[in-house]
Specification:
Blueprint lengths: L5 E8 L5 H11 L5 E5 L2 H4 L6 E5 L2 E4 L4 E4 L4 H10 L6 E5 L7 H9 L1 H4 L2 E11 L3 H4 L4 H9 L2 E5 L6 H14 L4 E4 L7 H4 L34 E8 L5 H15 L3 E8 L6 E8 L4 E7 L8 E8 L3 H9 L11
Parallel strand pairs: 1-6, 1-7, 2-5, 2-6, 7-8, 8-9
Antiparallel strand pairs: 3-4, 4-5, 10-14, 11-12, 11-14, 12-13
């Protein structure tokens, strides 16, 4: 195939949430798009066998122009086959198993330079079974992680639930992940343009909305949900940051306690920079990219969200304050 940066969508969700139904819906609703689909097992995809016209080295070619790959080894090997083989596709979809942690997959596309030359992560979509989610949240850690890492959450199987019940479920899930966009569906039928064009890691999409209160460094105080140990800690800070100190602090925190940090996302006001600095992290080293320039009449302030397990607000706030540029004033 001709060299191009192919968008990548990761589909995740706990067992029985409807990932296979969504995958088939995506293929059906986008007849002019050629998808490459990576599956852990072909049996899970359950695509009509009449679509399969040949197989070659664990890659099925489908009559609609799509190809389906078996992930029975290293993901890098599968990606290499897709890049070096004579395959033509417009979008890559990776469906994780129902008990998989999607962060390992996402981090490859965010941190590996060679992978980034051929692919760009568009976003992670998590299907939530509204009938069962409150029963598995906090019991099955993978379900918590899948929700925490998502850029888009699709609440599925909404039939039979009242508006109050759906509102309660949404409130609980937002307590785990306040960053993700959401929608509701039955049988995983959704407007696929919403989940295939998330652009979650493009600088144009970083002005995420948060529910601020009037305190300068306190927003979205986490509720004490008994369903899970995952919380989101969100901050708005008006002082400028010292980039070197902040980079060091976050790098060390992720290195030492990376298992507790699931997501970090923020827009940062850095001393001496005329542009926003964007930070993204998915259970790994922090990635910094330039954002848009600050406007003269704009309030310059940092917004940063941490999602993880048992994250102490006071410890995070103390660490962030030590990285402020103002903390250097008067020191030699």
């Amino acid at each position: 195939m001709a060299f191009k940066s192919v968008p990548v969508t990761i589909l995740t969700g706990f067992l029985g949430s409807g990932k296979t139904s969504l995958l088939n819906h995506i293929i059906k609703e986008n007849p002019n798009t050629k998808f490459a689909i990576i599956e852990n097992e072909f049996g899970e995809i359950n695509i009509d066998s009449e679509l399969v016209i040949k197989t070659d080295e664990n890659i099925f070619e489908l009559s609609n122009g799509c190809i389906c790959c078996s992930l029975n080894g290293d993901l890098f090997e599968v990606l290499n086959k897709l890049v070096t083989g004579k395959y033509d596709y417009d979008h890559l979809i990776i469906e994780t198993t129902g008990i998989a942690d999607p962060s390992a997959v996402a981090s490859i596309f965010l941190t590996d330079y060679n992978v980034q030359t051929a692919f760009k992560l568009d976003g992670t979509v998590c299907l939530v079974d509204t009938q069962e989610v409150l029963n598995v949240l906090g019991v099955e850690i993978e379900a918590n992680q899948q929700i925490a890492y998502a850029d888009y959450i699709l609440f599925n199987k909404c039939n039979g639930l009242t508006e109050d019940e759906l509102n309660h479920i949404t409130h609980v899930i937002k307590g785990v992940n306040p960053l993700a966009k959401t929608s509701f569906s039955n049988y995983a039928e959704v407007d696929t343009s919403k989940i295939l064009n998330i652009n979650a890691y493009q600088k144009e999409q970083t002005s995420f909305k948060l529910l601020f209160n009037n305190e300068s460094t306190s927003i979205l105080k986490p509720a004490a949900h008994k369903h899970h140990e995952i919380v989101s800690q969100s901050f708005i800070i008006k002082e400028t940051f010292d980039l070197l100190k902040l980079r060091h602090y976050l790098t060390v925190a992720l290195m030492i306690q990376g298992a507790f940090f699931y997501r970090i996302k923020g827009i940062l006001n850095i001393e001496g920079l005329q542009k926003r600095l964007i930070i993204q992290s998915v259970k790994g080293a922090p990635v910094f990219t330039d954002g848009e320039e600050w406007q003269e009449d704009e309030i310059r302030e940092s917004k940063i969200v941490f999602i993880g397990k048992n994250l102490g607000r006071e410890i995070l706030e103390k660490g962030l304050k030590q990285c402020l540029y103002s903390s250097n004033i008067g020191k030699k």
